[in-house]
Specification:
- With about 600 residues, the chain is an alpha+beta fold.
- Helix content is about 30%, strand content about 20%.
- It has helices at about 10-20, 25-35, 100-105, 155, 165-180, 205-210, 215-220, 260-270, 310-330, 430-445, 465-475, 475-480, 500-510, 510-520, 530-545, 555-565, 585-590; strands at about 40-45, 55-60, 105-115, 120-125, 130-135, 140-145, 185-190, 195, 220-225, 230-240, 250-255, 255-260, 285-290, 295, 305-310, 360, 405-410, 415-420, 425-430, 455-460, 485, 490-500, 580-585.
- The strands form five sheets. Strands 5-4-3-6-2-1-7-8 form an eight-stranded mixed β-sheet, covered by helices on one side. A five-stranded mixed β-sheet has the order 9-10-13-11-12, with helices on both faces.
- Helix 5 packs antiparallel against helix 6.
- The chain is elongated.
- The model is unreliable at about 80-85, about 330-385 and about 390-400 (pLDDT under 50).
């Protein structure tokens, strides 16, 4: 094919793909325009997950009638001019690509009026072509209505998600905007139902309450900006007991711009090191202040990412601010530093005479991808044991059987002490019980649907967007697992029954709290059989005996007996060890008997 210049119409559609990936992209661009216009109220309304229609209305400064058509010209913008320094951009939008990109792939009706005008103006674009324009009655501000997104581009439309998943993206985005701009009242409705409403009173905690609920907002810790340096961090971060199973609850705002930055997200996670268990993440809303010329906002087509000139400095500021809030909230912990700091399954170095002790772990090295569900149980390399300080091998594989153990007691209401043919075994009662229950319910689930135990009184549960998506898209799997859930109100469900193994837990913790915790932990990540495994081992975790519970000898014996019958007795479903082995040779060495 000969080289040729593309038509302006086709080129604009291709360029639109850099900015408009789906309905959420449209919402993002239009809301950012509203914020740049100084809006105090922004209302978003969507239909069909945004594929049928998207409407964004604001009370901002509006667009003059003689400039409305010009606003849809590519690279037309009121936010910068030829003399502007692109290294110091203060507005959210600046390229002049959003409106022409949207108009190139959908039908757009734009109505706007400035505060000093008696009437407004309206124009209509259809996939890049202006089809009508003229005066219109309108309140001060701007309304953009987008319909038929990608309607004439089936190749683009087929990559859109389901109505539910697209709506979830929009709701998550609206929540981030509401948190990042607490002085603006945001509202979102879908199919005529309210999905989000923030007060816009300038209080970050109120914005968090609107997005995540009052219980989470009440658990947030204040982070105050001292306003003295060029950089500053303020906002809210949750107490450790409000942790979630996903990073989606970490909202970062740099100079008012919601951004994704892996290093800054990692700084937040690092600040919680020692406060949260593995694979748990905080709810955090941070407002990062930085000099404008230190922030490059022009590094991503959709302006989702920013580049920081002094990123290491900002990393430290974020980590320090979050850690300080946690330190003031939590007492200083006493740490026990073991003599050996290697990975599970790795051979420890011999302890010097008279100091420490040797412990041989009864599990192979974890899989490199961090996914316990993909652990190489039958991998011959993983089946090779690891030598301890006296040359005794660890258990060769996940499927090896346990020796006959004699329970002799419990330590710290957490570990079962047992005697075996070659020393002592310390068994983590929660991890062991979790492994036993997981294998039992998985076998039951694979053979038939699990039973459902009705609650004496059904409980209403308020769901966030992630949990609501799980209930909507995974209703059949949840029903097979024993949960009877019915729609109840705009963003609530009615829980009528739970699996029998969770019935006793639900009686003490509340069935709604148990279900909400499970939904939160399974909301992100895998699909298909892997998702079902995640659901089952999460259920097993919540049904298992916890650390801190006193077990008598008979209860301990029964748990060890069931663990001996497990297919993979050496780890819990998350990959943590169920036990460690203090062998006889090490005991004799430490007591000077050899």
């Amino acid at each position: 094919m000969a080289v040729r210049v593309l038509s302006e119409k086709l080129a604009s559609r291709i360029a639109a793909g850099e900015v408009i990936e789906g309905p959420a992209s449209v919402v993002k661009e239009l809301v950012e325009n509203s914020l740049d216009a100084g809006a105090g109220r922004i209302h978003v309304e969507v239909s069909g997950g945004g594929s049928r229609s998207i409407s964004v209305s604001d009370d901002g400064c509006g667009i003059a009638p003689d400039e409305l058509e010009l606003a849809f010209e590519r690279f037309a913008t009121s936010k910068i001019d030829e003399s502007s320094d692109l290294s110091g951009i203060a507005t959210l939008g600046f390229r002049g690509e959003a409106l022409p990109s949207i108009a190139a792939v959908a039908r757009v009706e734009a109505t706007s009026r400035t505060a000093d005008s008696d009437s407004g103006a309206k124009l209509v674009f259809d996939n890049g072509a202006l089809i009508s324009q003229g005066p219109a009655a309108a309140p001060p501000g701007t309304t953009m209505r987008v319909t038929g997104l990608f309607g004439k581009l089936p190749a683009r439309r087929k990559f859109m998600g389901s109505v539910g998943s697209e709506l979830t993206r929009i709701q998550r985005l609206a929540g981030q905007f509401a948190i990042a701009h607490p002085s603006v009242a945001f509202s979102l409705s879908a199919e005529g139902r309210s999905r989000l409403s923030s007060p816009g009173d300038g209080q970050s905690r109120a914005a968090v309450a609107a997005v995540y609920g009052p219980r989470v907002a009440a658990a947030m810790l204040e982070i105050e900006d001292d306003d003295e340096g060029a950089f500053g961090v303020s906002g809210l971060t949750a107490a450790p007991d409000t942790a979630r199973g996903s990073r989606r609850y970490i909202t970062l705002s740099v100079n008012g711009r919601c951004v994704e930055n892996r290093r800054l997200t990692f700084a937040v996670e690092q600040a919680y090191h020692g406060f949260l268990p593995e694979r748990r993440f905080p709810v955090t809303a941070l407002y990062i202040r930085a000099p404008l010329d230190d922030v490059d906002v022009n590094v991503h087509p959709a302006k989702l990412e920013v580049r920081l000139l002094r990123e290491n400095l900002v990393f430290g500021e974020v980590q320090r601010a979050v850690r300080s809030a946690l330190s003031e909230f939590s007492p200083v912990r006493r740490l026990h530093v073991p003599q050996w700091g290697g990975r599970p399954g790795q051979a420890p170095a011999p302890a010097p005479a008279g100091r420490g002790f040797g412990a041989t772990a009864l599990w192979p090295a974890p899989p490199t991808d961090g996914d316990p569900l993909n652990a190489p149980a039958d991998n011959p390399d993983a089946a090779e044991g690891h030598a301890g300080p006296d040359g005794v091998q660890t258990a060769p594989s996940y499927r090896s059987t346990l020796p006959v153990l004699r329970v002799i007691g419990q330590a710290h209401e957490t570990y079962i002490l047992a005697e075996g043919p070659d020393g002592l075994y310390l068994i983590d009662q929660h991890a062991a019980h979790e492994r036993v229950i997981y294998e039992e319910i998985k076998e039951r689930f694979e053979s038939s649907a699990m039973e459902a135990q009705p609650l004496l009184e059904p409980e209403s549960i308020e769901l966030d967007s992630d949990a609501a998506e799980v209930v909507e898209t995974r209703s059949e799997e949840l029903a097979r697992a024993g949960f009877v859930i019915e729609p109840f109100g705009e963003s609530s469900v009615l829980l009528r029954a739970v699996p029998p193994l969770l019935a006793s837990k639900s009686a003490s913790e509340g069935p709604g709290a148990t279900l909400s915790a499970i939904l939160d932990e399974v909301a992100e990540g895998r699909s298909g059989d892997a998702w079902m495994d995640r659901l089952l081992y999460t259920m097993a975790c919540h049904a298992s005996v916890r650390a801190g519970k006193t077990l008598n000898i008979e209860e301990s014996r029964e748990l060890v007996r069931r663990l001996e019958g497990a297919k993979q007795p050496h780890t819990c479903p998350h990959g943590r060890p169920t036990m460690v082995h203090l062998n006889a040779g090490t005991l004799e060495y430490q007591f000077g008997r050899r």
